[in-house]
Amino acid sequence: MGKVVMYSSVSVDGFIADDDDQPGPLFDWLSSGDVPLDDSGVLKVSQTSFDYTRPYWDQIGVTVAGRHVFDMTDGWDGKPPGGVAHVVVVSHRPAPEGWDPRAPFHFVDGVEAAVAKAQELAGDRMVEVAAGDVGGQALAAGLVDEVRMDVVPVVFGSGKRFFGSVHAQHLLDDPDAVIQGNRVLHLRFRVRR
Hints:
Blueprint: E1 4-11, E2 15-17, E3 35-36, E4 44-45, H1 47-59, E5 60-66, H2 67-72, E6 86-90, E7 105-108, H3 111-122, E8 126-130, H4 133-140, E9 146-152, E10 160-161, E11 177-181, E12 184-190
Parallel strand pairs: 1-8, 1-9, 5-6, 5-8, 6-7
Antiparallel strand pairs: 2-10, 3-4, 9-12, 11-12
InterPro entries: DHFR-like_dom_sf (IPR024072), RibDG_C (IPR002734)
Protein name: Deaminase
Pfam family, one: RibD_C
């Protein structure tokens, strides 16, 4: 089974969106360079960010996200983001009415069941869990192997927290990657067991 990674871009004060669910400048680093990160030609990063991010993206088999993110993105128009094969949506509600049942999206009730379904679908590839409430729940349940964050030089002051509503201490190992790109600091931590 592949590892489970909690991930997002984050402000230096720990937020993945402002109070209105807007990411503000959190993704500006994805257009701060001259090296194409994907085939779209839209995402261009520094060579350093490309060397760190592209191999990570290539390992992701399945993304786990919450229903709130799914609804905000209109389900990515039925196409998983970033070229991943499947998205598992943590939701107490079924797929939206009229949703194409052939779209590679799976609606699962509860974080534990969602991560299990994602691992089944991913095989030996990585499962990425979106930071925020779902990611924090997965961390609290002991399901996360690694935390990755792209820290952006902005202070939000308030908003949606990277670790959601985690209310207990969770130890991480020392960072095993600290990489400076343009307008971003890439960090990777293993979760202590």
